[in-house]
Amino acid sequence: MNEKIVLKGGMLVDSNTGYRIVKKDIMIQDGKITAVEKVINVTDAKVIDITGKMISPGFIDAHTHCYTATSLGVKPDDLGIQRGVTTIFDAGSSGPENFEDFLNKDIKSSSTKVFALLNIASNGLINTRYELADLTNIKVEEVIKTYEKYTDYIVGIKARASASTVGELGIKPIQIAKEIAEKLDLPLVVHIGNLPPRIEDVLNLMGKNDVITHCFHGKKNGLLDENGLIKKETKSAIKRGVRFDVGHGSSSFSFLTARKALEQGFKPDMISTDMYNDNMNGPVYSLEMTINKMIAIGLDFKDAIKAITQTPAEIFRLDGYGTLAVGSIADLTVYELKEQQKTLVDSDENIVETSKIVKTEFIIKSGEIKKVTK
């Protein structure tokens, strides 16, 4: 799109300002940010007055399921631009046997930018349980070949580490996933849940910029011990640079767990939804709702914005994303921090009341204005 647009009077919340709220104008053209100045006065641009509104890099939801051939899958734009998110990740819905189908069916046809975490299971989540319970369903060379063919789309490796996925195999599939990720120099993203495998064994495998998702679930086998204290293996993983993602989901986010973690200084590196067809109308709803839940229980607003912009872009090496720097991709989210009463519910039906929320007004995707409709 060649139209030149100037956003005037916005309050920038971005890594380039150190997340200090700074009033500046932004000019975009040809899908890129071309200027960020205190005042931009031009006569040949469409001017949009956003005085008093916040503006950040386009929000990134790093855990969704948008491969519509699976029973979980929702069309990318329903999870992305319609809900105020410019970029989403599909978290392992496809594997090497069906990634190309996912690419042609859903990724290429969406306006939302879609990156993929490639499941090590051959057909991803076509079968939603026990995809890693049989080692013959993990074809290492096919995973490698698929990544090498589609490096523009695949940004990480995904494996689920819980009883309903690995069966009797315990930690073995996760060890294989780690070997693949290391060989390809990609982050490994691991879903955690019920035993087996033991969370301690999973944590000990993870390295710098690998990601544990569902970090605040309320089940046993979590990152906190039975007394609500951070486990020593969790602390060691944090020191090694392992990253932690909320990954809300239908049953994987507990206010009680998250509060205990925050009280001990354990903050999530990323906030994501794990949104799919069974939870998009509750309890998850949207990335906006998920960050509001984290802010309501004590996470600083600026840390929440960083967790859905800069951090996922850095972990997954998304050049031009997660920043408002000149030359970066013109993906932006315009929103307000509003005083408004809201009742929030976690995955375990616990309730928190809040009086301050982030409310998205509109987004700009690759230089085009998109309304938020959901």
UniProtKB/TrEMBL annotation:
SUPFAM superfamilies: Composite domain of metallo-dependent hydrolases, Metallo-dependent hydrolases
GO molecular function: deacetylase activity; hydrolase activity, acting on carbon-nitrogen (but not peptide) bonds; metal ion binding
Positions of post-translational N6-carboxylysine modification: K158
Listed Pfam families: Amidohydro_1
Residues given in the record as Zn(2+) 2 binding sites: K158, H191, H214
Start and end residues of each Amidohydrolase-related domain: 54-367
UniProt keywords, alphabetically: Hydrolase, Metal-binding, Zinc
Residues making up the signal peptide according to the UniProt record: none
Residue runs in coiled coils: none
InterPro entries given in the database record: Amidohydro-rel, Deacetylase_Atu3266-like, Metal-dep_hydrolase_composite, Metal_Hydrolase
Residues at the site labelled Transition state stabilizer: R160
Binding site for Zn(2+) 1: H63, H65, K158, D274
PANTHER family: DIHYDROOROTASE-RELATED (PTHR42717), IMIDAZOLONEPROPIONASE AND RELATED AMIDOHYDROLASES (PTHR42717:SF1)
NCBIfam families, alphabetized: PRK09237.1
Protein name (database record): Amidohydrolase/deacetylase family metallohydrolase
Species for this entry: Alkalibaculum sporogenes
